Amino acid sequence: MRLKLLRLGNVLIIDDEEKLRVLLSRIIALEGFEVFQAGDIKAGLKKLETSGIDVVICDVKLPDGSGVETAAVIKEKYPAIEVILLTAYGNIPDSVQAIKNGAFDYITKGDDNNKIIPLLYKAMEKAGLARRVLQLEKQLGNKLSFDTIIGHSRSLKAVIDAARKVAVTDATVLLAGETGTGKEVFAQAIHNASNRSKQNFTAVNCSAFSKELLENELFGHKAGSFTGAIKDSKGIFEEADNGTVFLDEIGEMPLDLQAKLLRVLETGTFLKVGDSKTTKANVRIIAATNRDLQKEVAAGNFREDLFYRIAVFQISLPPLRERIADIEDLALFFLKMFARKSNGKITALSTAYLDALKLHSWKGNIRELKNIIERSVILTDGAQLEAESLPAELQQFRSKDAKEKVLSAFDLASAEKIHIQKVLNYTNGNKTETAKLLNIALTTLYRKLDEYQIK
Question: Residue 36: helix, strand or coil by DSSP?
Answer without folding.
Answer: strand
